[in-house]
Specification:
3 helical TM bundles of succinate and fumarate reductases
């Protein structure tokens, strides 16, 4: 009688890390960038979208459960992999090694960017009784260093997401052949670039 093979905790943690990057984090990124795109249509449109999101029932519970906790887990395990793993980029500078290393770097920068963004738009607002609005976002990015930090952070998030989806499709056996992997890489690379372009124009609109 064949025994059911045991699944290691490391395998489960890796799978959860990979899955959390798609759902709910990836879905939240798409929604967040969609909402931010309303900045392009001016203060009234953006403020209306923010008011709509703020009026959703159990919004704080949803943010903590489906955004905050998954991001903390995804980032925490990602940092663990970064500092415990080894790369051979210097000896074998192949494309996948380069992308793996860049994925780790952008993940760390994206996490720092997210922490700062949460502090500016959530923690400070709670401390001083302010709310997210077009004017508040203008105030945040008015400093040149903060603007460039946001722009670089946006680039890191977009690359990390696009390359992460490609890695998810490979590791979960969705794309098996080299051709399918290439096509998925192009598709999600284009999606990441589109998100970055829209996000960049949204930041510029705030200036």
């Amino acid at each position: 009688m064949n025994e059911i093979p045991k699944v290691s905790s490391s395998f489960i943690l890796k799978r959860l890390h990979s899955l959390s990057g798609i759902f709910p984090i990836g879905f939240f990124l798409m929604e967040h960038m969609f909402s931010n795109a309303f900045i392009l249509f001016g203060p009234a449109a953006y403020n209306h979208q923010i008011d709509f999101l703020r009026s959703m029932p159990f919004v704080v519970f949803l943010e903590i459960t489906f955004i905050g906790i998954p991001i903390l887990y995804h980032a925490g395990y990602g940092l663990f992999v970064t500092f415990s793993g080894k790369t051979n980029l210097s000896s074998y500078p192949y494309t996948q090694n380069f992308l793996y290393t860049l994925q780790r770097i952008t993940g760390g920068f994206a996490f720092a960017y997210i922490l700062y963004h949460v502090y500016e738009t959530r923690i400070e607002n709670a401390m001083y009784g302010t709310e997210v609005s077009f004017a508040r976002m203008q105030e945040i990015v008015s400093h040149p260093l903060v603007f460039w930090f946001y722009l670089i952070g946006l680039a890191a998030v977009c690359f990390h997401f696009a390359n992460g989806v490609w890695g998810f499709c490979v590791s979960w056996g969705i794309t098996v052949t080299a051709e399918s992997q290439r096509k998925v890489g192009i598709a999600f690379g284009a999606l990441g670039l589109l998100i970055f372009i829209v996000g960049t124009f949204s930041l510029i609109r705030l200036l």
